Amino acid sequence: MKFWENDTIAAISTPIGESGIGIVRLSGSKAIGIAQKIFRDKRLKKMNLEEFPTHTARYGLIVDPNNEEIIDETILILMKKPKTYTREDIVEFNCHGGILLLRKVLDTLINCGARIAEPGEFTKRAFLNGRIDLSQAEAVIDLIQAKTERSLKSSLAQLEGNLKIKVNNLRDKLVEILAEIEAPMDFPDQDIKELNIIEIQRRVKKILKEVTMLLNTLDYGKILREGINTVIIGKANVGKSSLFNTLLKESRAIVTPLPGTTRDTIEELINIKGIAFRIIDTAGLKNPENVIEEISLKRMRKFLDKADLILAMFDVNTPLSEEDMEIIQEINKSRERNKKIIIIENKIDLKERIERQKLFELLNIKESVKISLKNHVGVEQLEEELVNTVFKGTIIPNNGVIINNIRQADALKRTKKGLEYVLDGIKKKIPYDLLTIDLKDSLDSLGEIIGESVNEEIIDNIFSRFCIGK
After folding, report:
1. Out of 186, 214, 236, 324, which could bridge 259 as a Cys pair, Cβ 3.0 to 4.6 Å?
2. Pairing of strands 115-116, 39-40
3. Within a 10 A sphere around the Cβ of 120, how many other Cβ atoms?
4. Confidence grade of residue 194 (pLDDT, cut at 50, 70, 90)
5. Domain containing residue 322
6. How many other β-carbons are positioned within 10 Å of the β-carbon of residue 136?
7. Residues 242 and 361 both lie in one domain
8. Shared domain check, 163 and 59
């Protein structure tokens, strides 16, 4: 018997706050019995929920079983195992959406024998009961947290089992190779055909190539999952806040002709062509004249350190200034740290006074994006450049199978290393039984991705990132 089989959990499954509907969910071996204690028909008559067909809904009332006091109206949804989210009996109470009301329903269920679910415990039970694998469980939280259509589609594909199918396919190939190597050693008296080590080498190389290709999708997967931290920098009054508002398509940052209007950083999530850009508008880079500007400058440098992409703005209507030179220094430092950078020349509607050749030489670039935020010229080109720059050097898979987190990547790296050891061993003609050690290590590492071979600490860490009720 599994440790949770006699344990029934309950949680509010809808966001905290006022809404039309709020859902309280039960899952476990006693879910139906506990729900029956508090559910009545509209005449306050007790109902035998065991007799209800599975996957049906009933209107009724929730009561306190101690005094039969009505707590709320509800639509009860009954789902009997095994065809449920957790593969356990599940009962959901669809109530009115007030938080006080939902907590009262939850407290009543707890008093009747349920316990409050831990974060992600419903999905954890789905994994432990074999309904989904670990990569699909991770896809659930990615689906909930998806910020764009691209990330949503990617999460749905992983939830449907794309990564699981790929990993299992690779594991099946390794198992076949292991069987062919071990069979002659385990059954020397049987008439088993002689091992073709050249053919084994060819197949291991092919698997290694597939593992490497999957590992190379990490950057693309992380972009879809986490988005891009993007910082706008430039001297005072260059148009940073105007650019911020233009990309956001609303007036979020205050814009005036006065230099230094933005005194602090402003941050918003912006969806550009299916990619989530977390764009940060910073104060102008200049020598601080007071404590507030000094703090703003420190915050700007902190965001620069964490940025994936830097949008550096220059004013074509003014010659390069001391502040511009500081911006150029920051850009070159960031380039050394492998930051992605887009150079933007703003105010092309005005007379050109910038020393462009000098700017390009100092930055070692051949082109920039030229825009006029005032006249909305060049904005579409900039958005295209944003997406192209983000994906430059990133492998975009044709089959849609990707990895998107460090845990999966770490397991693939160990798989890759094990396969490389196998090929090196074949080259050095080491005994075949030693080759199987590295093959089994690679097999186990692949198993970690889908949860076939993973310790409890990793499982707990994954599900702790979920909200309570999912």
Report:
1. 236
2. unpaired
3. 24
4. low
5. 226-391
6. 21
7. yes
8. no
H or E stretch including 64? strand 56-64
Higher-pLDDT residue of 382, 292 = 382
Q: Do 271 and 379 lie in a common domain? A: yes
Q: What are 115-133's pLDDT values in tens digits?
A: 999 999 999 999 999 999 9
How far is 360 from 366, CA to CA, in rounded Å? Answer: 6
- Tokens, residue 136: 């699909």
How far is residue 280's CA from residue 371's CA, in Å, rounded to a whole number? 19
User: Which CATH number goes with the domain that contains 112?
Assistant: 3.30.1360.120
pTM over cut 0.85: no
Task: Tell me the pLDDT tens digit for each residue of 417-470.
Answer: 999 999 999 999 898 888 899 999 999 999 999 998 777 787 888 888 777 777
Cβ atoms < 10 Å from Cβ of 343: 21
Q: Which helix (H) or strand (E) holds 409?
A: helix 406-428
Residues 211 and 278 in one domain: no
Are 14 and 92 part of one and the same domain? yes
Q: Is residue 70 part of a domain?
A: yes
- In the sheet that holds 90-95, the strands lie side by side as 39-40, 56-64, 69-79, 90-95, 22-27, 9-12, 115-116
Element (H, E) at 76: strand 69-79
Last residue of a domain, one of 391, 419, 449: 391
Instruction: Evaluate if residue 254 carries a pLDDT over 50.
Output: no
pLDDT in tens, 298-317: 777 788 888 899 999 999 99
Residues near 461 by beta carbon (within 8 Å), at least 6 away in sequence: none
Are 211 and 233 in the same domain?
no
Task: Please check whether residue 125 is in contact with residue 86, taking contact to mean a CB–CB distance below 8 angstroms.
Answer: yes
Residues 377 and 409 in one domain: no
Residue tagged 């008296």 (tokens): 189
Whether residues 162 and 299 fall in one domain: no
Rounded to the nearest 5 percent, the helix, strand and coil shares of the chain are 45, 15, 35
The answer to whether residues 54 and 13 touch, using CB atoms and an 8 Å cutoff, is no
